[in-house]
Write a structure and sequence with these properties.
Number of strands: 8
Helix content: 40-55%
Order of helices and strands: EHEHHEHEHEHEEHEHHHHH
Shape: globular
Number of helices: 12
């Protein structure tokens, strides 16, 4: 394929995106701050592809080709030469702006920058570059190989050509893109933030136990898991950060995070990754 993909950040999201991109024939070069993190990412991708072969979802030849067109580097300059660069670093606006400034100075004028931000308005990121028309939101969901949706966010300056390129890439990776205007939290997180937050308010006010709230959501709304189970899976710190970002950007009190959620995060009770959150693991 003519389109080459650069991926900045090799965590769960970065490696997941790299997997579905290479699996669908897109050459990928991925970078992170250390070789150890990159090696771990390649191991995750290899394991994911092997599981796909074992379950009959992926042909062995497709797995081999995917691993062959996956490259890793600790040099951001190498990734910057790609047709499209997808950034997946921590959800911090200043860090993302600094990264985009670095990429902007190192990339050809034709390179498109796609941010996998889950809450930060794309327009605010784009103006850090000299090519705001080539900056776009490309929000994947966790885990990327299992979740079909990609939120494609059009910033104030995003051109139609940039939008079309990201739509083509999303479909080429086997995802289903939905285009939306720029707004803090976009669509899914604007919906899920108050839902999860309200669950913590219900618990804080003693309306019901966390177990009963989870069961109400599973049985009454037909969700696969309850809000407290979901927060433990994603990470309470991530949830608090997303809710707080939307609250700060919109100024809308309905996104004000509960004191209980803040207290849990301050206590280091972050969910599955710390073996204890709303539940123990």
């Amino acid at each position: 394929m003519d389109t080459s993909i650069g991926i900045v950040g090799s965590g769960i999201m970065g490696s997941g995106i790299a997997q579905i991109a290479t699996q669908n024939g897109y050459p990928v070069i991925m970078t992170d701050i250390s070789q150890t993190q990159l090696d771990s990412a390649v191991a995750r991708i290899t394991n994911g592809l092997n599981q796909g072969v074992e379950r009959g979802f992926v042909e062995a030849s497709a797995r081999d080709k995917a691993l062959d067109i996956l490259k890793i580097t600790t040099k951001i300059e190498d990734v910057a030469q790609s047709s499209i660069v997808i950034e997946n670093i921590w959800e911090d606006q200043s860090a993302k702006i600094k990264l985009l400034e670095t990429l902007d100075s190192a990339s050809p004028e034709s390179t498109i920058f796609a941010s996998n931000t889950s809450t930060i308005p794309i327009t605010e990121l784009a103006i850090a570059t000299k090519r705001p028309d080539k900056v776009v939101g490309m929000h994947f969901f966790n885990p990327p190989y299992a979740m079909q949706l990609v939120e494609v966010i059009k910033g104030y300056h995003t051109s139609q050509d940039t939008l079309d390129a990201i739509l083509d890439l999303s479909r080429g990776m086997g995802r289903k893109p939905v285009v939306m205007e720029d707004s803090a939290g976009f669509v899914v997180n604007r919906l899920i933030a108050p839902f999860l937050n309200e669950a913590t308010f219900l618990l804080q006010e003693g309306v019901a136990t966390k177990e009963d709230i989870d069961e109400c959501v599973r049985l009454g709304l037909n969700h696969p898991m309850g809000p407290f189970q979901l927060m433990d899976l994603v990470g309470l710190d991530v949830i608090l950060h997303e809710i707080s970002t939307i609250h700060n950007k919109t100024g809308d009190s309905k996104y004000r995070p509960s004191q209980l959620l803040k207290r849990m995060v301050a206590a280091g009770q972050l969910g599955r990754k710390t073996k204890s959150g709303w539940y123990d693991y």
